[in-house]
Amino acid sequence: MTTEGGLRQCLTDLTRADTSGDYQKALQAANRIIRRYPKEQYAFKCKLVCLIQLGMYDDALTLLKKTPPNQMGECAFERAYIFYRLEKNDEALEALEACDPKDHRALELKAQLCYRLDRFQEAYEIFRDLLRNHSDSYDDERKANYLAVQAQLEAMGVKQQKNDDSETFEQLYNTACQLIEAGNFDAALTNLDKAIASCRETLSEEGLDEDEIEDELAMLRVQRAFVLHKMGRKKEAIEIYKALQAAGPSDVSVMVTVSNNMASALKDQSLTDSRKKLKAALQLDQKKLSTRQRRTLMLNNVGLYRESLISAIRNDVAYYAVGDLEAATLRCTPRHHH
């Protein structure tokens, strides 16, 4: 009775920590379960998820390697995701082969890997099939990624069908990127203006203050300035760049972009080189960006939505913990029913 009560308390601590998003506490709770109740196998999976949530990917990989499969349980997707975050692309692709071919998380991760490896056509086909055959609360992000891949293909000279059903600011932004690659700057500017208005409205509803909203709008404004420059409206572009420099956005990649594009605007250099530099800069600085900043960075070079992958993993903690909390409660009471 005491043992079961102690286990129930550990599980309660685990679920509370997961609900609050405090994965350090969740990790501590998982470790307590492993120490005190080593036969409770789900605790190893919970610990793995916590390590992933905390960005402790090396520790997560070590845990996977040292924990017997019968204790860890099925975790092919988590293994692939860890390799992905550690930028071990070949290992990630190999790990994905062990996943259920119908697992949409695995398919999305493969699409993101293909994007990273410049296998854009393959990424496009995966995202297209997912949009056709799967629907959940991440449809908006999935569509945004699909548009980002289309923008890359457009840049490679692969003609893409114009999208007219953009709704969220991420989608509007990526549609604008696609239009830019197609050379349709007037339409791109229209989409960017809509994206800025939509972003402001969305973030305001989320409770952000004016300074935070402006910080989030910075990347969209950079892209708008880029379009104005390409349209020959260089003076307007420079004004935007100067305003952004004065505001000092927290996003490192924005400042890199502003510096490169400002130099191009002032010296009338080609913007192509600036965009190549930006892509390299974004790849280097991805790990430094906040979740919200990564969400805003939908400019061709990203096309990733790690929040949804993390959320999918997060659900495992809730599933394991709540399920076993119910089981522990049943073992402690005389009534056996659901």
UniProtKB/TrEMBL annotation:
Its main location: cytoplasm. Keywords: Cytoplasm, Endoplasmic reticulum, Repeat, Ribonucleoprotein, Signal recognition particle, TPR repeat. The keyword Cell membrane does not apply. It is found in: Cytoplasm; Endoplasmic reticulum. GO terms for cellular component: endoplasmic reticulum; signal recognition particle, endoplasmic reticulum targeting. GO terms for molecular function: 7S RNA binding; ribosome binding. GO terms for biological process: SRP-dependent cotranslational protein targeting to membrane. InterPro entries: SRP72, SRP72_TPR-like, TPR-like_helical_dom_sf, TPR_rpt. It holds the Pfam family SRP_TPR_like. The keyword Endoplasmic reticulum applies. Belongs to the SRP72 family. This is Signal recognition particle subunit SRP72. It comes from Ancylostoma ceylanicum.
